[in-house]
Amino acid sequence: MSSVRVIGIDPGNYKTGYAILDINGNSFKLVDSGTISARKKPENLKKIFNGLNEIIREFSPSELALESSFYGKNPQVLIKLGEIRGIILLLSAIHELKVFEYTPQRVKNAITGYGWAGKEDVFSMVNRLFNVTPEHQDEADAIAVAFCHFLNR
Containing domain of residue 50, as a range? Predict the structure, then answer.
């Protein structure tokens, strides 16, 4: 199996997490991770687009792993996440990245072994598996998405 670089993304309205993971056969290496933070609309859409565009240009991934949307109690949240997902999918088309989507339960199961694990559990396992302490939960979630992609290739 050849080497591949993937960007894992956890979409969020005001904090979008990303992780760059190199995959080589049965091994993986975290290259970079972080969050793109924005405070208000519509500036947040532009900031997320520009931030992810710069990261994709700098690290040249060939695949994009994305956590799929889920419906919570507030439909407005789903609409807002749809806007961020639209930006991410546009960037994948611009940069010709293969897109892979994973449900939140599948991501949690991949990183913790339990699909209904809490955010603290995801954070803790990311810390253990990658020996990093993410600054934000969104960053930990993006690392978990990239790891889920590694396990499902």
Answer: 3-151
Report pLDDT digits (tens) over 2-25.
Answer: 899 999 999 988 899 999 999 999
Looking at the structure of the chain, the number of domains it has is 1
**Contact call for residues 62 and 97 (beta carbons, < 8 A):** yes
CATH number of the domain within which 130 lies: 3.30.420.10
Q: Are 152 and 100 in contact (CB under 8 A)?
A: yes
Binned at pLDDT 50, 70 and 90, residue 140 comes out as: very high
Q: Which candidate in 10, 63, 139, 141 is catalytic?
A: 10
Is residue 67 annotated as part of the catalytic site, yes or no? yes
Question: Would the pTM count as exceeding 0.85?
Answer: yes
